[in-house]
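ingest -> validate -> predict -> emit
validate: passed (alphabet ok, no gaps, 485 aa)
predict: started
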Amino acid sequence: MIRNQAIRISLFYIISIAFVLLNLWFVVKKDMLVANALPVVFCILLLAIFSFDKIVFLIAFFAPLSLPLHEIVPGFSFDMYLPTELLLFGVLVLFILKILHERSFDRRILFHPVSLAIAANLLWILLTSITSTMPLVSFKFFLSRIWFIVGLYLIAIKIFSEGKNIERYVWLYIISLSIVVFYSTFRHLGYGLWDKQAAHFVVSPFYNDHTSYGAVLAIYLPFLALFALRKNYSKKVRIISIVFFGILLLGFILSYSRAAWLSMVIALGVWGIIKLKIRFRTILITFISLITLFILFQNQVFMKLEQNTEQSSANFMTHINSMTNITSDASNLERINRWSCAIRMFADKPVLGFGPGTYMFQYAPYQLNKDRTIISTNSADGGNAHSEYLGPLAESGVLGLLTFLLIIGTVIYTAVKTYSRLTDIRLKQIVLTALVALVTYYIHGFLNNFLDTDKLSVPFWGFTAMIVSIDLFLSPGNQPQKNPA
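emit:
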């Protein structure tokens, strides 16, 4: 025993001295501080090997604070968000090795309707990557989607089967997101809090622009409302939640993201529909009636919209009214330009599309002079297709859109079904809140697209995993039986 202890001590000193010497060599000879990161990398590697859940929690925490590679290494051609996407890639590699070693994965997860819908979407992305006009771009897109789904959906489902991990996952993102809110608000103060133009860049470099920032704030506000208002959480948790709700609400208002504000209003409507138990048939009839009325009176509707000349502004009411300005508001007109390009691209390649991730490289020839605005470019600056729905339509054809809609449809169906049969009040509230949070992004997705980033993928796939995990492992009839002995 004494000998083993002496060996361990000797190894400790040998490794420590080797690290110091290696670090000195990098600093003196190469003028690089890269070796300083080795202990952190080593610790993360150990976590990945022995505890997947800790890595997923790290990813959730670092996502709001992650930085694009070009911000860290200027001029680097390959871009990704660090450290989160690097961690996700590592998780993907270890997950594959684990599956090859164990030759199994929980079949209940793999054959859940949501998982099957995701698999169908992934298979179509893979096929259209092979036929892509830019295969390298498309396969990078496919790879990034794979590591998002493996780390934030498949592994997360297992992690969430221990119910207490659900709140941990949410809180870790909220804590670091609050740091970003403080940072952006402090920068905003330098320009005046009500300076709308400043909202576009004060969130940099953590978020690309105010729209993605507003979108993620809209996703997390429902959970903070749940933690603050529901009595099944302790008084301490509720007080802390009220404080964080106020912080995120301030950021939400100062984001000046009209799409985020609109998505929150519609999500609250969905919450009301579920709480009031309004029948699906009633909703469907109402929806069909509204669509019919729009088709019948579309000329009058567009004439009315064209009369709106309100510009986006620091005045909140004016800013909200400008949502329907399709004649002079540059932001709205540029969205229409991008959508029009996506539809023309789809018309050219309706089955296989141009390839996943290629819109920004291919849309320029499809811009018409009459549609271009003062902010139009030929390189998709400021966003891609500005739609989670039209983007896949242009890039992967009709099945690209349909398989993505299938994911959304199965998630909503699973959430409503699980909510209706749950007896545990806490779990019912979590399922409903996760659905409402996801609906904010389903609506936001009509106006912007951010699922190619870790910022939105962490809540999007993570909250989807919550719903599936509760359906599979924590619902009545699925919970493990207690040993009578």
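The chain is about 70% helix and 0% strand.
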